């Protein structure tokens, strides 16, 4: 099988679920057309077997040995063709399934990267996770069923023509019976679509609830809230179960219709064909052919109802994908350039001199975070970088030159070395220096494999303080032009905090650094401290100067203690 496409799949049309499915189909038009061709030949090979079998029976009845051999060989050839085309149809079906599913993964992952901080504000974790858990499978199934569904339509049309040529009444019975069966199934699709959509929404909400519980399990245990959240999860899971039962009730009726309706058609065709055979209007071989076609039609008819079900599910899944693809990032960039210089937030008055080690102490944590978000271009605001407004710079350049590291950053699964050195270009000495500055050497030394030790999901084997120190080491190793740290020592003890404060100032010497904190140990090492209250700068100077001259600052950083 050919390798799956890994190139940039382009930009999908995200205006509607149907347009997205068309975009997926267009991007794999070649394999899709090949699969449809193989599926059509596969169905036709099966559709011609009853015809050739009936002719062979008539040859046997009349004693035509040559005809019997000819038609027997033809049936054998159809069997060989069916085997080959069946294998190729399945291979192309798997290829198209995987291509559609993972093309969806590509575009959603790229969109998530493009949205950045906007994504968690607009969509819950559960909604995003549901795309990778179930939606890609339904989109893949929608592309897969196009192969057999298209071939089934051709097979039904071919059988209808052959039956009309042999017997007009029997052919017309099939010709009108098939659309009537399809029309009988159609009313089930709308409630199925609606119930599947509601079920998916509840599944996304339940996934979000589960992620929240897992992330806050330690806190829940600390306050004794496990049972409360367990009861909430149980109640929500029961809602999901009931919604799933409602979907299954419609699907069960649809499944029953796939057996009942073709069965009724088979019975009618067989009865009428037997009557014609007794009257001499058709031969025994043709009766066998008609019965074979009546039985054969079960498969393509079942495929058509299956196609209706899978295309409906694919449409519901595509709606969730379109929802994330239609989002636009809150922050956009321009095409300007800047040589750097003073980084200044006009709204608050906070300014970072090039190469300085500055600290911001705010009356409330939210104010410091707001300043950091504006300086890092994570929220809108009038910010200058040198003599150029920050909004005029390309967003990729802003992310490369200005790094905002907060305690919401995650550790991912993989080797610790790869987790810390995200670019893959750091030497062992660089890693050692970053770990030393973050006081994280002891964490690495305690691991069996050192830097090559595996990290579990979200770094759950590390304590909160250990995770914070590893995140700090990762930020230092990135070595950006401007580094903005938000409370980088809030989860460590006082002795470790003092060491980090000393080493951090030395590690970032000569490079622009801003630390948002109210820790006296860190503030005392800063070259300049800026005190922010009510969103604006109220005082600035060294830590000791502000302690002596600004009572509000002193109350903030000492928390009212002498």
TrEMBL record:
Residues 33-313 form the ABC transmembrane type-1 domain. It is a multi-pass membrane protein. It comes from Planomonospora corallina. The keyword Transmembrane helix applies. This is ABC transporter transmembrane domain-containing protein. InterPro entries: ABC1_TM_dom, ABC1_TM_sf, ABC_transporter-like_ATP-bd, ABC_transporter-like_CS, P-loop_NTPase, Type_1_exporter. The chain crosses the membrane at residues 29-53, 68-88, 145-164, 170-189, 259-278, 284-304. It is found in: Cell membrane. Its main location: membrane. Keywords: Membrane, Transmembrane, Transmembrane helix. SUPFAM superfamilies: ABC transporter transmembrane region, P-loop containing nucleoside triphosphate hydrolases. It holds the Pfam family ABC_tran. Residues 322-559 form the ABC transporter domain.
């Amino acid at each position: 099988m050919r390798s799956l496409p890994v190139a940039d799949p382009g930009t999908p049309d995200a205006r509607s679920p149907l347009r997205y499915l068309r975009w997926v189909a267009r991007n794999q038009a070649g394999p899709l057309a090949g699969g449809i061709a193989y599926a059509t030949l596969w169905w036709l090979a099966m559709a011609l077997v009853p015809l050739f079998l009936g002719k062979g029976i008539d040859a046997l009845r009349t004693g035509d040995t040559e005809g019997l051999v000819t038609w027997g060989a033809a049936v054998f050839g159809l069997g060989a063709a069916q085997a080959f085309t069946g294998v190729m149809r399945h291979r192309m079906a798997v290829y198209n399934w995987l291509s559609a599913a993972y093309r969806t993964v590509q575009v959603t992952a790229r969109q998530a990267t493009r949205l950045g901080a906007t994504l968690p504000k607009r969509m819950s974790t559960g909604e995003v996770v549901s795309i990778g858990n179930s939606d890609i499978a339904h989109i893949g199934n929608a592309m897969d069923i196009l192969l057999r569904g298209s071939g089934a339509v051709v097979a039904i049309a071919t059988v209808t023509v052959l039956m009309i040529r042999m017997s007009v009444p029997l052919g017309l019975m099939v010709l009108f019976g098939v659309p009537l069966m399809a029309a009988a199934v159609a009313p089930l699709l709308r409630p199925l679509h609606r119930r599947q959509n509601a079920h998916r929404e509840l599944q996304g909400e339940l996934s979000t609830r589960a992620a929240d519980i897992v992330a806050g399990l330690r806190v829940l245990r600390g306050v004794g809230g496990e049972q409360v959240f367990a009861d909430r999860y149980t109640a929500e899971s029961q809602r999901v179960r009931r919604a799933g039962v409602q979907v299954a009730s419609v699907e069960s009726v649809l499944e029953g219709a796939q057996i009942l309706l073709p069965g009724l058609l088979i019975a009618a065709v067989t009865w009428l064909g037997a009557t014609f055979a007794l009257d001499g209007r058709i031969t025994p071989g043709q009766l066998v052919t008609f019965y074979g076609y009546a039985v054969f039609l079960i498969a393509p008819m079942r495929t058509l109802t299956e196609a209706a079900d899978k295309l409906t599910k694919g449409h519901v899944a595509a709606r969730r994908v379109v929802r994330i693809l239609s989002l636009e990032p809150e922050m956009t960039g321009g095409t300007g350039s800047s040589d750097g210089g003073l980084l200044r937030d006009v709204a608050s008055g906070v300014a970072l001199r090039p190469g300085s080690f500055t600290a911001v102490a705010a009356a409330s944590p939210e104010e410091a975070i707001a300043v950091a978000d504006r300086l890092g271009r994570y929220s809108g605001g009038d910010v200058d970088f040198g003599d150029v407004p920050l909004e005029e710079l390309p967003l990729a350049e802003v992310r490369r030159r200005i790094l905002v590291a907060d305690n919401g950053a995650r550790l991912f699964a993989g080797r610790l070395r790869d987790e810390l050195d995200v670019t893959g270009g750091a030497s062992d000495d660089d890693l050692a220096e970053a770990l030393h500055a973050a006081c994280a050497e002891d964490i690495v030394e305690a691991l069996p494999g050192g830097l090559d030790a595996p990290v579990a999901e979200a770094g759950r084997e590390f304590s909160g303080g250990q995770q914070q120190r590893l995140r700090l080491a990762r930020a230092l190793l990135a070595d950006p032009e401007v580094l903005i740290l938000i409370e980088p020592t809030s989860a460590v003890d006082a002795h470790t905090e003092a060491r980090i404060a000393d080493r951090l100032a030395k590690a970032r010497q000569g490079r622009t650094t801003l630390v948002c904190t109210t820790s006296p140990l860190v503030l005392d090492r800063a070259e300049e401290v800026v005190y922010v209250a009510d969103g604006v700068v109220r005082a600035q100077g060294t830590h000791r100067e502000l302690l002596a001259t600004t009572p509000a600052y002193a109350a903030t950083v000492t928390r009212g203690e002498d």
